[in-house]
Amino acid sequence: MDLDPEGIFRDDSDEDDDNVQEREANKDMVVYLVDASPKMFTPATNKEDEKDETHFHTIVNCITQSLKTQIIGRSYDEVAICFFNTKEKNNLQDLAGVYVYNVGDRDPLDRPTAKLIKDFSCIEDSFMSNIGSRYGITAGSRENTLYNALWVAQALLRKGSVKTVSKRILIFTNEDDPFGAITGAVKTDMIRTTIQRAKDAQDLGLSIELLPLSRPDEEFNMSRFYADLIGLDGDEITEYLPSAGEKLEEMTDQLRKRMMKKRRVKTLSFAITDDVCIEVNTYALTRPTTPGTITWLDSLSNIPLKTERSFICNDTGSLLQDPQMRFQMYNDMVVKFSVRELSEVKRVSSHHLRLLGFKPLDCLKDYHNLRPSTFIYPSDEHIFGSTRVFVALHSSMLRLGRFALAFYGNPTRPQLVALVAQVRDTFIPYLHLLQISSCYTVLVRSP
């Protein structure tokens, strides 16, 4: 189970360097393909009591909100914004009807920046004058702008290995039949070449997704063309098609669900005794999202701004160095501690998960639980034999009706947690990790 959280898992303690490297090795590359034909600038609804917003406005807000979430939670991902069915062209292949949007010195496919989000959110004001809109596939023309857009998107995603990088193309449009204006053998040939282009991209490890928009007078029909483009058949077509007239909030949520990466929260060392330590992975269950903390970023580099505190001497105005020794008064005596000694005094455990003991299951009450639970599962990736020890511990806890008490989190500020053994229908053992009240009485017992 692989959610990121990156907002949803923010409360599962701090990440270490290994997790940062893991995130970098599993980053996401996304190209947003936005239809810029005149139909996208028609009102999204014909209801008089709702705002007269266009589908293009809905997509711009949707991508903007997604970038705002991404720049904080997954700033290591890379994105590109590409319009097709445009009057102007801006791409390395010099293909007509495709405009790759970018700002400043940023690469076309790069990490999102604050300037990109700010300028893109206001693109509607200058879109018609700077980029323009047109029908890309018209009768009597051999120009296939959708084919060109897929070609440009594939070229943008050429860097990085598909084994470690997720590469996706998201298509936003309200036109379910882009070849409806032409007929005969020309239409058949264009459809065939466009679908073949999409299949070639998928064979290279690129994922193509469609986020369709239904017009007020007509529901989006996936069966006309796009079902074959993204490889859907049967019941998958009706399940994939979103309902007509989705609101802005629903569209944003739908995009975030597709953007959310699935991976383990982190890897922990589980100390059972002083001599026995195993490796486990933690995973998060479904839980409601909460607003994240505000992080101030540099507008150009996206690096989080840090607050530094310095002590200045009132007499000389010079900077005072951090003292190497700390002291504490005890029985009218000054007891000195070094910074290293003080850190060792504060350290409760040398591991992020430390077993304390066991108690009967009837001692664990619902009101003891303070936060949503996670579950842990063994891993033999770095410590061989972890699964065997984990299964033995899990079996004993189930057989004797016990749950385990443990310290979890930062070694200097651990939290008291309960590990409850559970088993699924497929008999896969795992432990639920519940943060419980710190006033809970700890009684060490063997299972």
From TrEMBL:
Subcellular location per the Swiss-Prot or TrEMBL entry: Nucleus
Segments forming domain Ku: 316-441
Region (Disordered): 1-26
GO cellular component assignments: Ku70:Ku80 complex
Main location, first listed in the record: nucleus
Keywords noted in UniProt: ATP-binding, DNA damage, DNA recombination, DNA repair, DNA-binding, Helicase, Hydrolase, Nucleotide-binding, Nucleus
Gene Ontology MF annotations: ATP binding; damaged DNA binding; double-stranded DNA binding; helicase activity; hydrolase activity; telomeric DNA binding
CDD domains (alphabetical): vWA_ku
InterPro entries to which the protein is assigned, alphabetical: DNA_bd_Ku70/Ku80, Ku70, Ku70_bridge/pillars_dom_sf, Ku_N, SPOC-like_C_dom_sf, vWFA_dom_sf
Protein name per its UniProtKB record: Ku domain-containing protein
Species in which this protein is naturally found: Panicum virgatum
